[in-house]
Amino acid sequence: MTELTPSYRSHAQTRLIWALCIASVVVYINLYTVQGMLPSIAEHFDVSGAQATLVLSVTSFTLAFSLLFYAVLSDRIGRLAPIVVSLWLLAASNVLLIFAQTFDELVWVRLLQVALLAAVPAISMAYFKEQLAPSFMLKAAAVYIMANSMGGIAGRIFGGLMAQNLSWQTSMGLVFLVTLIGVALVTYLLPRKEIKPAVIKQKVSLLRKIKQDFDGFVFHFSDPQMRLAYIVGGLAFMMMVNQFSFIQLHIMAEPYGLSRFNATLIFLCYSSGTFASYLSAKWILRYGSLPLFRVALCLMLCGTLLTLVDTLVAIVIGFLITACGFFLTHSCCNSFVAMRATSHRAKATSLYLCCYYLGASLGGSYLMLFWHEAEWNGVVVGSMSLLALLLVAIWRLGIHQKSTEALIFED
Predict the structure, then answer these.
(1) pLDDT above 60 (res 66)
(2) Residue-level pLDDT at 96
(3) Where are the transmembrane segments (predicted)?
(4) What is the SS3 string spanning the chain?
């Protein structure tokens, strides 16, 4: 391992946290800006609204499996280079969006972008685990998830504002500028020294390296508690992110009749999740992960049921409660996986995020069946079944509570 002086390491830890949080905001702005621009995309590229949603649906699968690639790459060559290179290429790819002439070109560029932006979520938690002192780890993870939330809010609202006031080319030019500034800041802040994974020092054949990588994924996926954490995160995101999609359709219809932009303001409810993420480190240390999983489940259940009350105020309060519960779940899962992984760390976190985004992809089609049957009331029924599965997963995780908590905090 690279030897770092205590003063340098303290300074480097602070810079690393700032850098990866800014990188997270940049990534999620790029990922979710188009969600607020779907009507503008449909109009500009002369496609239907249903076709326009492809710029979102195709990205979730690509993102899920790109995460696994970066896990392998960063375990081989280190964390710094993949993040920096991918972010600069992400900034450059926004230029391609400005000049995209057809919807097919737009979809291909989005696939490229998602493959590039996957580096940050795939590597960040492993980077934190290796570079930060144990006392910093949970705090850094909590702030990082808070940055995820802020980026998600900013991207969607930013996209809605641009779609309402700017042309497609001007909008993409502005996204390019914001991305460029963010990437420059990240590059400046990231420490130049890093404690590199020991595995990259081993001189073995290519076939042996591939087997090591495969074994790393199998090792984590064969751990029952890791597997349950992956299921918990995937089910929670499967419900929450798609609820936010369908609720926009609900509040745009009568009796609410909100405009497309005003409907996107529902994403401001993510702010309660930002708050929960920030406090999650303190809560995990005080109460442990399992009680927080139970609290989060209750919050998501209560918030979802509250949206059945036929007023806009009740819907907003319901989504504030649901978002709080979801981000508490996500923070606990992230911290659990990062702290439990003692080897192949990037593979552990990327497997979690792969399940997380696959959940988002599958959840759209699943809840769509309920939407077609009974619109928002149907979505709530479909959500209840997902929460029931979540309850079973959390209960199973609780069977091994004592051994789990000991493994998490013995570091």
Answers:
(1) yes
(2) 94
(3) 16-34, 54-73, 80-100, 106-128, 140-159, 171-191, 228-249, 261-279, 291-309, 315-339, 351-370, 376-395
(4) CCCCCHHHHHHHHHHHHHHHHHHHHHHHHHHHHHHHHHHHHHHHCCCCHHHHCHHHHHHHHHHHHHHHHHHHHHHHHCCHHHHHHHHHHHHHHHHHHHCCCCHHHHHHHHHHHHHHHCHHHHHHHHHHHHHCCHHHHHHHHHHHHHHHHHHHHHHHHHHHHHHHHCCHHHHHHHHHHHHHHHHHHHHHHCCCCCCCCHHHHCCCCHHHHHHHHHHHHHHHHCCHHHHHHHHHHHHHHHHHHHHHHHHHHHHHCCCCCCCHHHHHHHHHHHHHHHHHHHHHHHHHHHHCHHHHHHHHHHHHHHHHHHCCCCCHHHHHHHHHHHHHHHHHHHHHHHHHHHHHCCCCHHHHHHHHHHHHHHHHHHHHHHHHHHHHHHHHHHHHHHHHHHHHHHHHHHHHHHHCHHHHHHHHHCC
